[in-house]
């Protein structure tokens, strides 16, 4: 349930409404809007009687929220959430691009790539220090050493860094180095990790699970927001289907569908979706044309030597060309 | 197996190679290329001994074809197939657009829509006279009456018309009226229908089956080409997945994948893929950005009154806007 | 809408109700039940006013049918449809088994297999004379010659024969030889073929489409029943999923789901579902345990020499063992 | 790589082979077999030269392991792994059944159900104390209080208890109470959790991920085994497909496929697969017929009042009937 207050309701009245909500055993969550405040009612079981609140001073209307998710819902908050990182803003109609290698491999590798993507116009640098790998015998990432190299690359280029956290145990560590924390596909429903991310002061990129329904994905974001962190960026990265000519199937329809249901920004990762360079390039252009709130692309200075996902990483020159075209396309369509 | 001849090989020598192939019990299929002719060897069981043909006059080389499909394969023909209809060319790097209603409903409806899409820049008019419907109790199309209205719209606007054929029984009838014949998703592996289409002198749009692998789709095209009709246009229209926020999931990766495997043009139908107008528009832009060889879009003058698929049909004004943006995007990316 | 008549309503009164329905422009379809008759109202657009019929003599009640399908629905007919072929009955709680080779290859092959499966207790012989093949270069079946061999095998063994029809063109031919006509997966929504099957006096096995929803499958059966043929047997044969360790994924849940929605018998084909002998055997046992109305299994006397689907065909000895176990399991669980 | 030793090789020779392996920088993992020992070579990058070990005393042969997984593979260990819990054995050809409520709700509920399932012949009691829930607003389980009730139920009935662990943080706690630790579908690739489970002295039930390939599932088990815990039981519980008549699609083919690839026991959970009682019963029978190494079923004394998954929970009387039939079926087919 959402209690919408009159414009200019005084702080004391707002507090009185909150108290009324809490007295009934629910949680009250103030939601600042453009020119008025609303109060979300959480943790109710079943429906709440609107009559309890309609008569209170300052209450304009009481709206039942019909979605299973609340905080992430457009019913709760009509304006787009804007997530600001460095000079980039996700959700304001611009097209910030996150680029970098799949995994941090060495100082030379990372600085070389960071320089290239910065020059091509990327807004953030990505790179994995802790890698989720199907096999226990595969390279698991450089760990803290990798995080330090990301810091170093940030100093050199000024680009904020995005890196993945795999578990609660390493969260503090990753949080200390990263500007944006990524929660990967396999962890989309790792609820302890989501709750920990909800307590972080860092923005979170929440990748869609391999076979997650839209509602499940938004619910996972709800776990983060429910703990107090509103800076959530959703990232579509392809879903598992019967298809065999690409690693996953990029579900572009989900971008307008998310925007309809939620105020959170949503970006697209064409690299993990397709798994092959020849497909990443056209899918990156398509993502820009779609009106996504950003794009995340893997770039490597020597893809053929990459320890992971080399086949899907663009060469720096290819990336620069993709950037030019994505920007030109974005000028035409804007964000949907 | 593909027998590549020297440039400028004389007709008599070409015939001699063909005879040699046929004498061994295979079928010989001449494949004209840019500046030389090749001879495809069909209907062999197991591998064919290259030695039989290597010594013949005019034979430059003999290439084993490793794909299960042959005539559709880039191994057989490197240059793009160009399918010309009216002023439109599919496969030459341009972006022809096919637009119109799901079903032909009346003269007024069809002429109104035809006029709108022509003005907005569409190259072909689509409209169903025979409709494949899940339920026997749903509207099944106007039949021949609908075909006549399509003819009438062609006269009025000059736009060639695309319409679906459902079965061999009505093929002659549809062929008599249509400029391009569409074989729908549910018929992708209706082999009798494919063979009949292969004997047609009309270009064929072959929609991808609901859960067809790339190879199965190309094989279906092979059935058509094997009967002698080389004017096949492939059309991606979304595949069935677990996803519920759209009717199907548009598989854009398949476009670059088709282009790598085959010389046939491939277009995208975002209307059937998503099933909702809000998604069709961004997906249309994405299709243009992808480098597809064309786009097919449903447009209706009064979508809210359409007898079928109203929710996915664009209003004429929306379509005109989409056309402008698709053309601008196409200028940036070209065809991949 | 379903008009339920009183027990023992006289023929004249039944006819009067039918006339009343037809006078309103609908089609009336009498549905014989255990001890009373009902009249189905077809071809209405929108809902029908029950008041028109409630006052008629002999009318006990009028039930709105909420399902999109009608004739196939349990709402229309509560008792199981029994399809009788030779000594076998599908739908009466027994477990008839259809067995035989994928394709008819030769007299020797067919008679050898027919003898084996008869001895092991199969009730019907299967064998394809017209084969739907992904590639135009694969063996397409023996055609009429194969049908003649099936006839011959029937004479020898007394087993009724099941064989697939691929198109309307060959329907008369297949109908002349077959006891049961099979419509394959790729043709589940070949509506012309379904309508032709609806005019046949032969029972029809309707295989589920590769990615058909339950409702789409029942709607396809509705096409057949709507033309007047009520002897439809549904056959689950695996659906397409992301899974790679089997050719398709057998959807056993669909069997109880069909039985809840429809009165039609439903059988299971574990051979096409899995594609590997090692999986066919346990899945056959599972199908019997599930309470299916029958099982269809591929058997070959020399699987390693089969022209198609050899890997999934059981050896005669394996089949005999599977039959023994399926019958013993069926004794325990009965049909659900 | 697997180094197979002669029968009766002395301990000192075994140790010498291990030393030789370790000297080359690899890890040696002794694998006890029926009458001989083998040594697995782990953590090699690329292939290992067999010549290094072939000449050593006691070495019979050196087998390259071609699978990406090793410890879980039948190539590494031919005999079935037997996991013993209380009186139950998973993997020896018997059919132990795990039954109980989705979530522990109260002492009365748990003891009532535990008594019923014990009487019906279940070997282990299941019940969730920490529940993975899509929504943060749903009941999250009783936590430690629930674990204590499980302990109490074990004392009362003698049944060992199975319960899920959601994260590394609560692992010690769950381990202190549970006899078998369950890792759920959403955590199948929570690699930190898998590694922690690998250090546990408790057997682990590893549920298959919602859209996990067979290889990914076995790799997840490899993470556990690689840390030293060999008591892993795999559990199929349905995968996500396009299907809508059941919550998930139970993939029974995976059972014979697992048994071919791996020596680990594999059980089936028909309750989560289908989500509806009417389907759970026939799928339970089918699971027994399939030759699975066990079955896990949800049972509730008052399903209509259950806080979660009531619709899929069997009534105690239904469960007793299912047990009788599963046991009778198992007598017929044994384990595959």
Task: Summarize the structure in words.
The structure is a homotetramer of 336-residue chains. Chain A folds into two domains: 2-63, Phospho-2-dehydro-3-deoxyheptonate aldolase, domain 1 (Alpha-Beta Plaits, 2-Layer Sandwich), CATH 3.30.70.1140; 83-333, Aldolase class I (TIM Barrel, Alpha-Beta Barrel). The model of chain A has no long low-confidence stretch (mean pLDDT 93). Chain A is an alpha/beta fold and 336 residues long. The two termini of chain A are 28 Å apart. In chain A, helix 10 (277-289) runs parallel beside helix 11. In chain A, the strands form three sheets. Chain A has an eight-stranded parallel beta sheet with strand order 13-12-11-10-9-8-7-14. Chain A has helices spanning 11-23, 51-54, 107-120, 144-157, 171-177, 191-198, 214-226, 254-261, 270-274, 277-289, 316-333; strands at residues 2-5, 27-32, 37-42, 59-63, 83-85, 88-90, 97-100, 124-126, 161-164, 180-183, 204-207, 232-236, 266-268, 295-298. Chain A contains eleven helices and 14 strands. In chain A, helix 5 links the parallel strand 9 (161-164) and strand 10 (180-183). Helices cover 35% and strands 17% of the residues of chain A. The A-B interface holds A 211, 213-214, 239, 241-246, 249-257, 260, 273-274, 278-279, 281-283, 285-291, 325, 328-329, 332-333, 336 and B 211, 213-214, 239, 241-246, 249-257, 260, 273-274, 278-279, 281-283, 285-291, 325, 328-329, 332-333, 336.
